[in-house]
């Protein structure tokens, strides 16, 4: 792993990193914020998954998360949204290919060689961060925005031993029922709908048997979000949670759109949500 740059930030350090990913077959970048902490202490960590067209830098520069992360003693990890580089296949559209990895492992050619973001985030990246930063592997959470909200919800539901807390801003909750999801899943997973179902937060929630034992899930959604009706459909997730007894705090906010001004407005509540669940008992 190569350290690209390191910056003092609210008493802690923000590090931009680059490494050769074996899982994705390309160079990848990510950032890690380490809050001020006593020497030798290991810390709870929350991974943020960004949305379509984003890199590791959108959250890092626009979410306004680090002042409170410093106060709460939370590590924050911001990966990229897809494999990168000239050798990685791409699509002309902004909602498929690079910048649109959808946090799953593709099975269709030519995407299956590089587009393995689920294995990358939950495996290789997690191991790399544990090796280089003071993270408590047993106290990790995940959150995200839009496509990254889909990633956070599905990786949380698919990897319960890894992630203990989850929240999302304007998530895609039912990719099997919206145009972004149809396009991505058909491209990455082919036409097998059983494979699609494995990456749909609503279906995973309805199938889950441990909902009552899980902590509350926090979701914020702006009501002036242009993607709300056609792509995001948060009510479907509300119905799925209700059906299985999952506690859900879904908040709808008048006037807020889909962007990072919305995200930074509610960031504090998300960090406090994760800290409360990841507390050191
Ligand atoms: N294709 C449009 C929309 C893309 C979009 O809204 N992406 C969201 C995630 S779904 C985002 O976070 N964009 C980057 C940003 O706001 O910093 C664009 O590039 O303007």
TrEMBL record:
It comes from the Bacteria. GO terms for molecular function: carboxylic ester hydrolase activity; S-formylglutathione hydrolase activity. The keyword Hydrolase applies. It is an enzyme of class 3 (hydrolase). It catalyses: S-formylglutathione + H2O = formate + glutathione + H(+). Its EC number is 3.1.2.12. The active site is at residues 146, 225, 258. Keywords: Hydrolase, Serine esterase. GO terms for cellular component: cytosol. Serine hydrolase involved in the detoxification of formaldehyde. Belongs to the esterase D family. This is S-formylglutathione hydrolase. It comes from Paremcibacter congregatus.
């Amino acid at each position: 792993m190569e350290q690209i740059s390191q910056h003092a930030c609210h008493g802690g350090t923000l590090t931009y990193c680059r490494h050769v990913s074996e899982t994705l077959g390309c160079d990848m970048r990510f950032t890690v914020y380490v809050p001020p902490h006593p020497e030798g202490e290991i810390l709870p960590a929350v991974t943020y998954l960004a949305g379509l067209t984003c890199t590791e830098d959108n959250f890092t520069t626009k979410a306004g998360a680090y002042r409170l992360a410093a106060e709460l003693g939370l590590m924050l990890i911001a990966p990229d949204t897809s494999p990168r580089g000239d050798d990685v296949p791409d699509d002309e559209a902004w909602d498929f290919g690079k910048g649109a990895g959808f946090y799953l492992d593709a099975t269709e050619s030519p995407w299956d060689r590089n587009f393995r973001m689920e294995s990358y985030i939950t495996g290789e990246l997690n191991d790399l961060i544990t090796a280089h930063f003071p993270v408590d592997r047993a106290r990790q959470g995940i959150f995200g925005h839009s496509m990254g909200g889909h990633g956070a919800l599905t990786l949380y539901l698919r990897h319960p031993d890894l992630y203990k807390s989850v929240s999302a801003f304007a998530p895609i909750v039912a990719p099997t029922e919206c145009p972004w999801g149809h396009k991505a899943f058909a491209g990455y997973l082919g036409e097998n709908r059983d494979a699609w179902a494995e990456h749909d937060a609503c279906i995973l929630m309805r199938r889950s048997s441990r909902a009552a034992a899980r902590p509350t899930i926090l979701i914020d959604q702006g009501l002036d979000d242009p993607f709300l009706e056609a792509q995001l459909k948060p009510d479907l997730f509300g119905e799925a949670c209700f059906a299985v007894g999952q506690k859900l705090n879904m908040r709808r906010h008048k006037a807020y759109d889909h962007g990072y001004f919305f995200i930074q407005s509610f960031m504090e509540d998300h960090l406090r949500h994760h800290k409360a669940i990841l507390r050191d008992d």
